[in-house]
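Consider the following input, taken from an annotated entry for F-box domain-containing protein (Somion occarium).
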Amino acid sequence: MCRNSTTGITAVKALQQGPFPNEIVALVVGHLWNSPRAVRACTLACHAWYAAGRPYIYSRIVLSNGDKFDSLVSFLRSPNVRFNVIKHWIRELHVRTPHPSNAGLWWSTGCPYWVLRLSAALPSLLPRLSVLRFEHQNFDSEWLSRFMVHLSKFISVRELVIANTRLELGMLQSLASVMPNVRTLRLVNATIIDSQQTFSPMAIQNKPQFTILYVESVRDNTSSENGFISWIRTWDTVQTLAMDENHRLMPALLGTFGPFINHFRLIVRDKAKWVDASNKISLWYTTTGLALSHVRTLEFFDVLDPTLVLWLRHLPSPGLLEKIVFRISFNRPRELKSEAYETLDECLANSNLSGLREIRFLYEGTLAVDLVSKEIQRVFPKAHCRGFLQIFMADPEEKLL
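Applying the prediction step yields:
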C-alpha cells in the first residue's frame, strides 16, 4: 500500500481502463512513490500507467531562479481545470539558488528577491505542501521579518530541509518558531554560526516540536555557551535520529536523545573515521551504544563491518530491538568473507535479541537480487535460520528517511 493514500486515491480516479484493474496499477505505482526514476519508467508503459504516475511526477517541484517561479505561479493560477488539480499533487518544494563560483560574493549578496516573493505567493497556491527545502540560501536581514511572516502561512508543511548553506543559529531558531507544525528537520551540509542579527527572544525560548532529526555533514561553528548544542539539548520530542560519523556532534546528540529515541540511523561516509589504526572499531563508537536504552530500530548505512557486533553487545536493553537495517554495496560474489562476519552472525542469532523480528539488507550495486540473497545467506547462516532475513534492492534516489 502506498504511504500517501490521498495521492493514491487521486491516481485511481485518474486512471483509464487498461489491461490491469485500475486499483492494481495504482498500488504498483504508489509503492514506488519514493523513487522518481521508477515512477517515470512506469509512466512510459501506457496511458493508464501515465495517469497513475502523474500525481507522483508532479509531487516534487524544484525552483532555481525567478523565471521558473513566475512560470509556476502562472501555471498554478491558470483557470484551466486540468492544470488546477496539479497544485493538489505538489507535496515537496525545493528552492535552490545556483551556487556561484565566487563564494565570498555569494554570501554578501543575500537572499534573492524572488525567494521573498515565493514565500508570499505560494502558501495559498500549494494547499497540500508538506516538504519545504532551501538550498544555497543566505537569508538577508533586509527581508528577514517579512520572510518569516510569509513562512508562517505554510501551515501544511511538516518537514523542513536546509542544505548546502550557511545559517545563523537565530535564523534556525526563528524558522522553528514560525513553523510550529514542522515535525522533521533535516540539516545537510550546513554550517551553523553565531547570530549576527537581532532575533526575537521568543523564537529562542520556544522549544520546537521535532520528532525526526536528520544531521549530515553539519558544522557547528557556534560558541559553546547558548550555541547550537545548548539549544538542541532543550528538545524533548525527538523520536528518530539519523546522522553521520560526526565526532563533535554525535556525543552531544546521543547524550541528549539516546535515552528517548526508538529509531537510530548511522550513515558512515568516511570509513577512516569508523575504525582506528588497528582496523578495530574505536572505543568512542562502542560506548555510544550505551545511550540507546529504548531503541527499537537500528540502521547502518554504507557500512557492514564485523565490529558492529560491539554496538549490539553494548545496547542496555537488547530485547527491545525489533529491526536492524544494513544498507550495503559490493560488486562480486564471495567478496564478503564469512569468517570475518562469524561473530556478527552469532550476535544477530543470539537469544538476547529476543524482540528482533526483521533483519533487512538494502543492496545497492550491479548484482542481481537472487545472487545478493545467496551471498547474504552464505555469510549470515545463523541469522538466516531465524527466518528474519530480508533482502531488497536499494534505489540511489530514495530518501534516507
